[in-house]
Amino acid sequence: MTNLIEVHSLKKHFRLPGGWLSGETKHVYAVDGVDLSIASGETFGLVGESGCGKTTLGRMILRLIEPTSGKVIFDGKDITAIEKSRMKPIRREMQIVFQNPLSSLSPRLRVEQIIAEPLTTHGILSKERIRPRVIELLEQVGLGRQHLDRFPHEMSGGQCQRVAVARALALNPKLIVLDEPTSALDVSVQAQIINLLDELKKTLGLTYLFISHDLNVVQHISDRIGVMYLGKLVEVGDAQDVFDEPLHPYTQALFGAIPMPVVDTKRELKVLEGNVPSPVNPPSGCRFHTRCPIAQKMCQETEPALRPVRGARQAACHFVE
Amino acid sequence: MSVLLEVKDLNLEFKTSRGVLKALNGITFEVRRGEVFGIVGETGCGKTVTGLSILRLLPRSAKITKGMIKFDGINLLDLPPSEMEQVRGGKAAMIFQDPSSSLNPVFTIGSQLVRVIRQHTELNAKQAEARASETLDAVGLPDIKRIMTSYPHQLSGGQQQRVMIAMALSCRPQLLLADEPTTALDVTIQAQILKLLRDLQKQFDISVILITHNLGVVAQTCDRLAVLYAGRVAEIGSTHDIFNNPQHPYTRGLMNAIPKPGSRGKKMAAIPGTVPSNPGEMTGCPFAPRCEFAFERCSMETPALLKASEGHLASCFLVEHAG
Fold it and tell me: Rounded to an integer, what distance in angstroms lies between the CA atom of residue A178 and that of residue A273?
């Protein structure tokens, strides 16, 4: 399998306002050196708590946010080196679906206009061929001709998210970044959308970057997953392997904290004490050492690199064998 | 265990521009002393409105048309507003989903807590302050002196929710209503807050009603629970019974719709269709249009809560058939 996406030491430091007079500029180290590759046809799940940089990373891969440094190679081309004005043909190949469909769909446009917009913007279909294509897309996502004239507010959250998926599919992209696509939905509807995404991936041969904080969902849909903490990947590997046996202490703590819908008197929630430190002033050495149950002195001083452990698995911890 | 709160046949409607919306259609349950009781359901099932009804915090457009809410021997629906004010925040307190919007941004944590305590107790300013620090300590906050003089924005989301819990407990209530208390928090912080709620429930010997859409949270924290659908109780019983032997097809559907370890690559069992928009207008079982077991009778009459085993009831005709 070839890699559709390759990310090399990607960083994004947001500058905080103020500090000009005090002579000190502060930065939010949102993404601070990430290396990652996603194979063509793969679903890569990116998990982590709020503020860990998963959304920023997703948007940099689409170049919706300009990286501070580092490279993003998409389908063999370094898209961080391309002039912005020449990004348009590349954008056809990469799309995004956001968390809340009610705020990512324009309330003033009808479903037909929403889905037709990328087709007209890129001018790839003649006017009379647009409507049949929109209907085809609606049918692909489990809606139909009867929804053409609806406004987003006339539909349920699940239906709106289907429209957002149809809009993302309109240009036959290779990659879709799904940023928390089911977090705003109820569980019974969430299951419908996950099934739809799975089916579309199989029939259209798509590649997904699936960003979510819901570990159960990520585990279900992903082939490989990456766990982020404070702007860094701490563990990467096959989804099933990582869930069966998490190696990094943070991954272990994160999975231990998921409340499972089963009554098991033996299973107690593992509680990780403390809060996530601020990405403005990340801890020295290993960023997790302030909350880590097995931290030693060296963890405060030396930052562990993300290194291969056990075959295809990577982890960033001094103590993982 | 004796009963602390009894909700019986609660009916509630909203007046909207598009007519009357019957949100609650006969909710019945009881909460015993010293238990954590879960109310579970999807958006629009009436779980939040049920919670708000208990404390009579309903918006003006809502009207309780029928039913009774008996708390510690008194029917709350009969109380005059002035007496209700003493119950609210005193004997029964509530915490909400988003702590940052529940706290007043322009007052310090200390002054907000002291104010609540003085409103509901006879304590003087000094004693109230002592009570405030004591309660903040009980919810596991570090560096109480600093927290007391901090403003809400200076605390993290998890710390803010701890402050909300402290405020709710500061007047030593008998009942704590928690409406999606961990939904706005990250999983590791959620685990901290859930453990805290369980510990405090034992320490202060109170009853807790936990309102949530997350079945995992319920399984991990509650003793008993009610599953709501379309403003009615679909199933009620002990957490153990409901999770190991769910009776209502809706409960089973919800449980199957959650991805579990080992489900990768398999199609998920989604519940077809959507929640009815005005369940009060429907005849028969409100779940019938989405139910794979529905038969003729389901669309004609509404099933009552039928007994599956001791203390485990479900509103489905098939329970009766099972024996």
Answer: 30
